[in-house]
Amino acid sequence: MPIRTAAEYIESLRGRKLRVYLFGELIDEPVDHPIIRPSINAVADTYQLAEEEPELATASSKLTGQRVNRFLQVTQDANDVVMQNRMQRKLGQRTGTCFQRCVGMDAINSMFSVTFDIDKANGTPDGTGYHARFNEFVKHMQRENFVVGGAMTDPKGDRGKAPHEQADPDMFLRVVERRADGVVLRGAKAHQTGCINSHWLLVMPTMRLSEQDRDYAICAAIPVDHPGITYVYGRQSCDTRAMEDTDIDTGNDKFGGQEAMIIFEDVFVPYSHVFMDGEWQFAASLVERFTAYHRRSYVCKTGLGDVIIGAAATIADYNGVAKASHIRDKLVEMTHLNETIYGAGIAASHESKPTSAGNYQCDEMLANVCKHNVTRFPYELSRLAQDLAGGLMVTLPSDADFKNPTTGPLLQKYLAGRPGVSVDNRRRVLRLIENMTMGRNAVGYLTESMHGAGSPQAQRVQIARMADFEGKKRLAKKLAGVKDDE
Amino acid sequence: MPIRTAAEYIESLRGRKLRVYLFGELIDEPVDHPIIRPSINAVADTYQLAEEEPELATASSKLTGQRVNRFLQVTQDANDVVMQNRMQRKLGQRTGTCFQRCVGMDAINSMFSVTFDIDKANGTPDGTGYHARFNEFVKHMQRENFVVGGAMTDPKGDRGKAPHEQADPDMFLRVVERRADGVVLRGAKAHQTGCINSHWLLVMPTMRLSEQDRDYAICAAIPVDHPGITYVYGRQSCDTRAMEDTDIDTGNDKFGGQEAMIIFEDVFVPYSHVFMDGEWQFAASLVERFTAYHRRSYVCKTGLGDVIIGAAATIADYNGVAKASHIRDKLVEMTHLNETIYGAGIAASHESKPTSAGNYQCDEMLANVCKHNVTRFPYELSRLAQDLAGGLMVTLPSDADFKNPTTGPLLQKYLAGRPGVSVDNRRRVLRLIENMTMGRNAVGYLTESMHGAGSPQAQRVQIARMADFEGKKRLAKKLAGVKDDE
Amino acid sequence: MPIRTAAEYIESLRGRKLRVYLFGELIDEPVDHPIIRPSINAVADTYQLAEEEPELATASSKLTGQRVNRFLQVTQDANDVVMQNRMQRKLGQRTGTCFQRCVGMDAINSMFSVTFDIDKANGTPDGTGYHARFNEFVKHMQRENFVVGGAMTDPKGDRGKAPHEQADPDMFLRVVERRADGVVLRGAKAHQTGCINSHWLLVMPTMRLSEQDRDYAICAAIPVDHPGITYVYGRQSCDTRAMEDTDIDTGNDKFGGQEAMIIFEDVFVPYSHVFMDGEWQFAASLVERFTAYHRRSYVCKTGLGDVIIGAAATIADYNGVAKASHIRDKLVEMTHLNETIYGAGIAASHESKPTSAGNYQCDEMLANVCKHNVTRFPYELSRLAQDLAGGLMVTLPSDADFKNPTTGPLLQKYLAGRPGVSVDNRRRVLRLIENMTMGRNAVGYLTESMHGAGSPQAQRVQIARMADFEGKKRLAKKLAGVKDDE
Amino acid sequence: MPIRTAAEYIESLRGRKLRVYLFGELIDEPVDHPIIRPSINAVADTYQLAEEEPELATASSKLTGQRVNRFLQVTQDANDVVMQNRMQRKLGQRTGTCFQRCVGMDAINSMFSVTFDIDKANGTPDGTGYHARFNEFVKHMQRENFVVGGAMTDPKGDRGKAPHEQADPDMFLRVVERRADGVVLRGAKAHQTGCINSHWLLVMPTMRLSEQDRDYAICAAIPVDHPGITYVYGRQSCDTRAMEDTDIDTGNDKFGGQEAMIIFEDVFVPYSHVFMDGEWQFAASLVERFTAYHRRSYVCKTGLGDVIIGAAATIADYNGVAKASHIRDKLVEMTHLNETIYGAGIAASHESKPTSAGNYQCDEMLANVCKHNVTRFPYELSRLAQDLAGGLMVTLPSDADFKNPTTGPLLQKYLAGRPGVSVDNRRRVLRLIENMTMGRNAVGYLTESMHGAGSPQAQRVQIARMADFEGKKRLAKKLAGVKDDE
Hints:
The structure is a homotetramer.
Chain A: H1 6-13, E1 20-22, E2 25-26, H2 37-52, H3 54-57, E3 58-60, E4 67-69, H4 78-95, H5 102-122, H6 130-144, E5 148-151, E6 174-178, E7 182-193, E8 200-203, E9 218-223, E10 229-233, E11 259-270, E12 274-277, H7 283-297, H8 300-318, H9 325-350, E13 353-354, E14 360-361, H10 364-374, H11 377-389, H12 392-395, H13 399-403, H14 407-414, H15 423-437, H16 442-451, H17 456-466, H18 469-480
Parallel strand pairs in A: 1-10, 5-8
Antiparallel strand pairs in A: 1-2, 3-4, 6-7, 7-11, 8-9, 9-12, 10-11, 13-14
Helix pairs in contact in A: 1-2, 4-8, 4-9, 5-6, 5-7, 7-9, 7-10, 8-9, 8-11, 8-15, 9-10, 9-11, 10-17, 11-15, 15-16
């Protein structure tokens, strides 16, 4: 029986045998932990949206012949790729944070074409190889309507060294044993977004590999509560406010992101769920396809951008300065930057081309350009939001002081703004801006925008590769009348 | 017999009864004038491209049932709009300048839907109204394969006043007389790109009008050499180099842009070529549709961007520093900015929606965002190109000094760079960068990028209108938990 | 007996009758509160520096004839103003946060000349008026070596209204009663930096006043623990980490800033400590002089900039990528921006001119330019620091997880970087960058940089006033050969 | 008899035996050439200013005991260095272009200390060595009030090779023969600012040299019209407009810059005017000192910035939009950027320290920061000026069309703006902005700002050297509590 609603999704997470550590303690039930719950709510909203706007958040799957959550869809045309972006922006607007399902979606689409290519290169007959197994896995996920977490980033150890050269060979996830019925994995994945809120993990190599790295060329699907897996929760700015008695100081009380480290201590995976095992030649194209999808997936941040623009516009309104030309101008600049990100992202999706496997892959140059702007503009939007917020955002006393019978009335008296605006509403909006620019969701809106799907320099390397400087030089030389060039 | 080739196009321009003034003189034959000719060559290349790449630069017209030059096509689906951008970039790459036909293309598409809307509002039966007349005009242009120049910008006089309030009522083009068979027009159009290289002009109002501006609400088609029309050529930086005995100092010897002022001294237009006459209510939507198309048409500048990136890469290579990391990084930055423009532009086209008249109109927000980036990034690309060029770009002696038997050999000796690079090729590339950043094509690459299709503030006004700040405020308030907001 | 050392300073704060609220509770002894203590340590370091580098952090006072802490010095020449900046940068480097004494220093210097001007305007004989009283107050502070907190910013209520127009007249601090021996004050001061760590407060009006605002034109000195004063501590991002059992997750365990709201409930001040009472005409020049000094005082942020550059350079080193050209280039860019701030600030100080009272006032244009860059560049330095830090900064588990016997060894294993770098040192530097870019000291490094001493628009207004556009127009017209201009 | 006035200066240039080539022709008398004359006028204005404001533009020389032109002064205290900046800004404001004397001024001050150091290292007794000879030379210049052109930049040939490694050994100026009474020089100097308008040239090596480059380690003074010297004039954007019959289209009709290549064909220099000959070890410090001075000398561009801000403010006024908030805001931004440059420059001068020779050397970090901002901000000022100018700047017909009896009245009619503004004045200001952003003085305002005194990367290298990253790392590590760092 598939998961149908947000409530069912949340219920589905209860009672798993997960080993999750947070603040030095083994968590009994993550679903009920006040720090973890907002991140679960964010994923749950992907189910909610599918119910509310099925055209947007579900798609017709050729694999199952049924309507499936769009996060599980293998893209069947350019429109499918475009619709991902529209859904991402909407979810960003609804949650104001990272809703954690894009890695899985992008991993499914990359794996779909790469397993096809491996099979083809191997001459493996259809139906018996990786691609067929992978399709079975995807169908399973679609039928159950599960959340799939993509797990790519290894800890990497000494950055100057290849996986096989590391002092500790476990610094990249690897096969430590091959049995008749499956493989045994050891290692870790760092910076794992939403893994604890997933049902299955899809592990993949993190970079180009060489022949000597053969044991690191492993792709596989694993249930999140498989024996041998440990999660250590990453702490975030202001995380403990969720444990205070307040729904104001949290800024965005309902939604949050999640980052954790996953440690695999000799985890067994049956071959039915292995989709690459030693084909090191395909690691590079897997990473490239994944990052192309995923860099354009950062269009989600324009949804968060809509929220921060709205928060900035609201606080300007509450402060009684909404009509000042410089305030208006800053809101326009924020909008312009936000839409510039969106333009490059949605363009990358529109310009999708079919792979040999038949699904659609977005334009790589524009996807990188989109992400590269994401490493810049949200920081400027944050700066402008802080400008409009005013200094009170960082000098506001705690909610507890507002509740205290001595200080509460004094604060209410002295923090009153223009007529018609309650001090509490003003606080709420200030705390939301704090949340997104230096608090818990600043992790998702800023730092994840910087490093997710590759740090800025990774995009520059890709942009350089696709820039065709030689072609551009020919254009210039022709117009300049260059003759007999060497 | 339609024009079929670039050569035929150039031939078609000879012998017209144009009154063109340049440097205080009435020009005998513009086609043969060394300053004007490069701008004609640029338009001719649009014919050349149609021959070389018909898929790109022609389209199947429903109106005539034939394949027509894409600059004359009424867009029939979103792909038609997207293909305009691809063609524009390609022509920018081929000419390194403004090829002058986009205004006409965008005017045709705006007029197509606005004439339809006027007819509909007027209850005019199909076949007798503006839309039908306009379609006939377009068919005529398509059959003859003519160049149509769109003429929108009036001189405007005192900016604080409406057309009917001006001290001199001719500061906006207007109907001064209505006869039985047509109207008589007086006024001028400023900053007219490529008008002298066109066969027909399509005049349109330049801004929102009120009822009192009724006589200014005029759209009409006029042959360029109609009696009563005078052209005064605008001068451009370094324009007279085209009259020197050199093909090097010109930078881009073959191609250039063209700006002129057109003065209408009581020009008669028969009603068959009048497409709006007094319907002031539709001036605003005509301008908005036109600017939406045209702001996205500035994707052409990414073609020029490709040339300037190529020129910068070439000069870095000639200077022997192409592998320096900071050089490489600047080329990447130039590419990133250039593609950011492209992303927003092509996205605006992909997101086109049908009008009630049936042609396709691009997304207005993304079109404005595209153009707004065009008012910024080409300047930064120019700055970076000047950085890579080195100071020699502005201290290089004239070509005449290189031809002088005394100084020529000295200059050849002392300006030699790394082995294998001729001094002349180095000069050619430096002069191309000079041409695009401060010379003749800087007009097209920079200042036109700033002001064409509306100055930056015009985009900000449009972005503000479409930003839906109220909707964004609701998003923020919901997440912040704002209660009982006034 | 004056305070001589950092330890004596801290001791001097004990046992005061302060009413300080934090997290809804009345604090028993602020000195021992883990959240408050780091802010006290930062102020204490100003005493420490005076001991270690007396040339830098003390000055010879004409008033007392003795060497006094530079924060209490009335500037006697331009060098005194310059030395303030040098001291500020050094303290920023030492503490990585706001050390809270600049407001008092700048208030003393502004009040010095404004009291002189009021006396002069009033024809008050020297020795009996405000200036003489103020000098006595300063001498007292110098002799005791006290910390003076300047209190300027009122809550302001409805921003569109003047003090006397507010629905609640207490929205700006005001005289509610004039007695024979002194005045009674009511109101509040918001965003008060370091007030709880001061010995005396110097209250001043926050903006230009009109005659009807006469009761708001009040300057006075008040001991911090005067009856009727209540402090409510402002909460900051990640503030509660100081209460956790960790010296790592705090990022900067020793030093922090402090913001509080001060509420005055009918506080009596004897005339001996009143330095303006009703002279509303002088409020504007007091604010202008204060902001000129204080905007240039933001040179302190270049000291914090040095720390964040150092932290970014360290983490690049720990990550084994310090030699990558793009890493190096980002460190250079950070340095360039940081020194650009410093240049404008130190220039403003060097260009100081004597006031009629004899002390030295910095250049107003350059001071505003300095601060305006401070509202931009620290954000870009933060962005670049986050770039260099890598994603681990926001996914790193808590210190408690490192101490846990199960997860600790796993984390140590998998977070190992290049040889020779301990995981703990890596964590420490990452937490410092988190602290400065989104944690507790981001308040001081970013938001305070935005809003302290006036928000960006306040500087733009001042820059416009001093820009002398008319003079610049004359320069241009002369060169252009403009004739008979209206 | 020294030169006392601008008129005498111009007269002093007549009748020299200069070999100057321009547009392939040997120029008879440069003073009377319409392209060259504006550059002479700019230098003449340095004499004019000395007459009008002697406190600003002259100084008391210890060498001669007399008041001398400040461009010839050996700086005697920090104020002398500061006053250079003030004078430079003023001359930038008066001329709107490069007035060409800074290289000489900065060369004199660098040579002063370096000749002292060489003597000291050589143990040469005072009076007989380089320093004494150099002082004699400076005294001669001061007494005659001559213009000294500093000539540093060699053509450099293959950038990857040292002087002695070049295929053609003449690619750097060198000693080809040593005679009993002097040396013979061969080579060239490129990008020479104002050389033709000078009386003497001071040649210096352009970069760090090694022992094998000994013959390139040559500093010497040479009269500009010495036998064997040839000048080839560099062409500039729009240079030939100076030869048209117009004082409007030139934009800045009176003043311009000058760049030329100087070729030395076996030029003899007596030892009395040789100040370095073979001391290759001192080439690096000479270059470093010179560039430190000279990078800060780019404060002159803030004078040009004042002009372009004034021009932008004027055209906004003429266009009737001066009060629009976005226009005002752009003028403020231009001012802010311009003053940011000034701040770093004047700070570098204020922070000057004495050399061992006794003159004052500016702060190297701030000088580099100043120049680095100069490679960015004037481009942004230009972009904003073009924004405010409107498109007419590049579509305006030529002055000849305004003089033509047919088109003149039409243009006057249709280009009328708001009442009270003449079309001619509007044209004049537009042409001035064109002149500074893409015309003749764009060379000085933009490209020279980029490359003069070293290209951007040269500043970044210096900033990196002085950044003390190790010291900054220590600051960060201390605050982070880093322990037992390797």
